[in-house]
C-alpha cells in the first residue's frame, strides 16, 4: 500500500516538494531506478549544478521569465539529487538542508527575526553580514583571511572574492589609477614572456593580468563575470551580423577575407551605437 501511495504521489501534479523528493528516490532505486541516475556520484553531478546555475543567470539576464521557471526547477533538482545521495550514504537529507539554511538565515538577520533595530542602511547590514560570516568561519577553524573561498568558483569570481577578503584587512589599492598602472605593468611582463616563447611564463603572466583586471573591475564597481558575459553576448551578436551580411552577399565567413569581416564588424558596431 505504501508503494501505491508513493506511485500516486509521483503522478500528483499538486504534490510539491514531496513529489520531487519521491521522484528522485525512485530514480536512484537500485532495483527499479534509472541506470544513469544510479551511477551518478557527488563528483559527476557537481558540474551539472554549476551549469544549471549559469542557465538561471542567463534566463534572468534575458528577462526570460517562463524559461527561468524551468531553469530554477533544474537547479532545484540538483539540490534534491545531492540530498538523495547524502541520505543514501547516511550523511544528511533534504530536511537537514532546509533546516541548515533556515537556521543560517535567522541567525544572520537579527534585525528581522531578533531584537536588533532595522533602522540601519543596506551598507551597514552588509558589514554585519560579513561579521557574522567571519564568526561562522572562525567556528569552523578557518582563521586565515583567505580561508573558505570556494575552489569551485569560476576563476574571475574567485579572484574577486579573494581580493575583497584581502581588502578588508587593508591589503588594497586606494585609487583605480594605481590598478590601471599595474595593468600596464602586467601587460608588459606578458609581452616579454610571449617574446621569449616561454609557455609557463606566458600562462603565469596571463593569470596575473586577468587577476589585476578583475581587481580594476572591483574598484570600478563592476562584476567581472557579468561584464565578460555581456561582452561574450556582444561578440556573438556582432559576429552573427557579419555572417548575415555575408550570406546576403552569397558568401560565408570562411570565404571572406579578414579585412572584409573587419569592415562588416565596424558596420555592426556603428549600427549598435546608432540605436543606443
TrEMBL record:
This protein's record includes keyword Zinc: no
EC number: 3.6.1.8
InterPro entries: MazG-like_dom, NTP-PPase_MazG-like_C, NTP-PPase_MazG-like_N, NTP_PyrPHydrolase_MazG
UniProt xrefs under SUPFAM superfamilies: all-alpha NTP pyrophosphatases (SSF101386)
Top-rank taxon: Bacteria
GO biological process: one example: dUTP catabolic process
Signal peptide segment: none
Catalyzed chemical reaction(s): ATP + H2O = AMP + diphosphate + H(+)
Gene3D superfamilies cross-referenced by the UniProt entry: MazG-like
Start and end residues of each NTP pyrophosphohydrolase MazG-like domain: 40-113, 176-239
Keyword entries, A-Z: Hydrolase
Single annotated GO MF: ATP diphosphatase activity
Family membership noted in the UniProt record: Belongs to the nucleoside triphosphate pyrophosphohydrolase family.
Listed name of the protein: Nucleoside triphosphate pyrophosphohydrolase
Amino acid at each position: 500500500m505504501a508503494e501505491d501511495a508513493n506511485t500516486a504521489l509521483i503522478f500528483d501534479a499538486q504534490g510539491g516538494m514531496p513529489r520531487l523528493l519521491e521522484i528522485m528516490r525512485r530514480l536512484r532505486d537500485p532495483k527499479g531506478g534509472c541506470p544513469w541516475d544510479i551511477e551518478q556520484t557527488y563528483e559527476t553531478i557537481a558540474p551539472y549544478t554549476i551549469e544549471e546555475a549559469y542557465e538561471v543567470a542567463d534566463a534572468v539576464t534575458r528577462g526570460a521569465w517562463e524559461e527561468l521557471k524551468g531553469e530554477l526547477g533544474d537547479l532545484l533538482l540538483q539540490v534534491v539529487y545531492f540530498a538523495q545521495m547524502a541520505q543514501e550514504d547516511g550523511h544528511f537529507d533534504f530536511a537537514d538542508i532546509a533546516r541548515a539554511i533556515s537556521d543560517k538565515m535567522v541567525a544572520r538577520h537579527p534585525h528581522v527575526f531578533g531584537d536588533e533595530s532595522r533602522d540601519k542602511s543596506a551598507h551597514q547590514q552588509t558589514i554585519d553580514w560579513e561579521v557574522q560570516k567571519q564568526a561562522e568561519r572562525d567556528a569552523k577553524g578557518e582563521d586565515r583571511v583567505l580561508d573558505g573561498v570556494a575552489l569551485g568558483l569560476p576563476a574571475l569570481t574567485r579572484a574577486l572574492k579573494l581580493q575583497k577578503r584581502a581588502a578588508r584587512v587593508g591589503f588594497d589599492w586606494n585609487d583605480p589609477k594605481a590598478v590601471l598602472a599595474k595593468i600596464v605593468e602586467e601587460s608588459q611582463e606578458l609581452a616579454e614572456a610571449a617574446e621569449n616563447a616561454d609557455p609557463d611564463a606566458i600562462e603565469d603572466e596571463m593569470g596575473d593580468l586577468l587577476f589585476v583586471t578583475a581587481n580594476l573591475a572591483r574598484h570600478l564597481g563592476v562584476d567581472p563575470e557579468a561584464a565578460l558575459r555581456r561582452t561574450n553576448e556582444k561578440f556573438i551578436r556582432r559576429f552573427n551580423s557579419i555572417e548575415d551580411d555575408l550570406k546576403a552577399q552569397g558568401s560565408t565567413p570562411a570565404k571572406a577575407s579578414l579585412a572584409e569581416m573587419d569592415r562588416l564588424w565596424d558596420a555592426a558596431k556603428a549600427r549598435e551605437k546608432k540605436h543606443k
